[in-house]
């Protein structure tokens, strides 16, 4: 768009022609997203960093095969997710993560009241825990759509699935998430979770 | 129809959407630095290239010069060009034909050509007479570098009708000149299947025409095998030496076009 110094397409094109600065700009732009997506898969910061870094390097070398004008972000994320899967270590690490996440969350932001804060913390912790218990594919579908706000078209590329199947994947993943949540799981009344 | 006690899809979506920004991710590491470090040294060198670019040209020129000087005897034999190029090793210079250079290899678009100056000032700083191609006229920019023994000058020409833009340099034509006879080197030039290497005669002096796919230049700066750097890729290049000065013309032009410019160097 106008006003933006250089969009992805221009940066990718430059990077394809060997402009490392252009590629560095792309890395800067997407490193947080790449790291977080990798973290969703690995559940471990070091593994996620490793995966994201490897993905960026591999993506650079694969730019020659990248279709000009295609969206860069989901293409990158596909590589990130693959790298992350390759690095994902044992399940206990993921559990450790959930515990750490919970701890981090509890010490987080200011809350309206101790009770409500505790309720919100518990809600988030339960939700995160349920997410972590999903298969990678399901978790990624949900994370792409609801955490990272990817469009369906982007999700199809990132997940390497036909676009027409994105909706049903999303719905299946939600169903599985519901399946791993406790029966009495409820959205708390005032946690910032609802729109109101 | 659903159990009213259970959350709807919409509830879950909202809950996850709200969780997203609060998800306790670890701090994002700075990947850009690590990534560019990994892609740069073997490829087009971002940070290092600013420092090394000048050296790369210098050493590339030295490589080419040595190829000319040392390879002349080998080339006198009626062997095919590719047989020579496949593995050519004479006194510290190797021209290696590699099966598949990386497709994304290319050159930096930021060139450190030295200090921007004028032709007259540059002339005062180098130990040889700067040659300007009559065909192109005065350069659009003149750079001088005092690092290499004898100094080095770069004449830059912007793209113009008949002079295509070169992706590797961002210029139309780039001419570099330096005292090749003063600079030792230990160099490998890597030339992929898409690059041709051809012996040519430039104004009666032997030279090389390297064309097609961009080629990379690896400089072994020390005997330590780990201590090498791939400096950058170069576009079509005509390189030759005359009277101790090595000339190099990098452009998107054909061999004939580059030869015409070389022939007009005064």
List strands and helices in order, with pairings.
The complex is a heterodimer of chains A (196) and B (266).
Chain A: H1 8-16, H2 20-42, H3 45-62, H4 72-87, H5 91-106, H6 114-133, H7 136-147, H8 152-159, H9 166-180
Helix pairs in contact in A: 1-2, 2-3, 2-4, 3-4, 4-8, 5-6, 7-9
Chain B: H1 9-19, H2 31-39, H3 47-76, H4 81-86, E1 87-90, E2 93-97, E3 115-117, H5 119-125, E4 141-145, E5 152-157, E6 173-178, E7 187-191, E8 195-202, E9 205-212, E10 215-220, E11 228-234, E12 236-242, E13 245-251, H6 255-263
Parallel strand pairs in B: 2-7
Antiparallel strand pairs in B: 1-2, 3-4, 4-5, 5-6, 6-13, 7-10, 8-9, 9-12, 10-11, 12-13
Q: How would you characterize this protein structure?
A:
The complex is a heterodimer of chains A (196) and B (266). Helix content of chain A is 70%, strand content 0%. Chain A is mainly α and 196 residues long. Chain A has 2 domains: 8-87, RNA polymerase sigma factor, region 2, helix turn helix motif (Rna Polymerase Sigma Factor, Chain: A), CATH 1.10.1740.10; 91-180, Arc Repressor Mutant, subunit A (Orthogonal Bundle), CATH 1.10.10.10. The model of chain A is unreliable at 105-111 and 191-196 (pLDDT under 50). Chain B has helices spanning 9-19, 31-39, 47-76, 81-86, 119-125, 255-263, and strands at 87-90, 93-97, 115-117, 141-145, 152-157, 173-178, 187-191, 195-202, 205-212, 215-220, 228-234, 236-242, 245-251. Chain B is built from 6 helices and 13 strands. In chain B, the strands form 2 sheets. An 8-stranded antiparallel sheet of chain B has the order 3-4-5-6-13-12-9-8, sandwiched between helices. Chain B has a 5-stranded mixed sheet with strand order 1-2-7-10-11. Chain B is elongated. Chain B has one domain (35-263). The N and C termini of chain B lie far apart (90 Å). Chain B is an alpha+beta fold. The longest helix of chain B has 30 residues, at 47-76. At the A-B interface, α1, α2, α3, α5 and α6 of A face α1 and α2 of B.
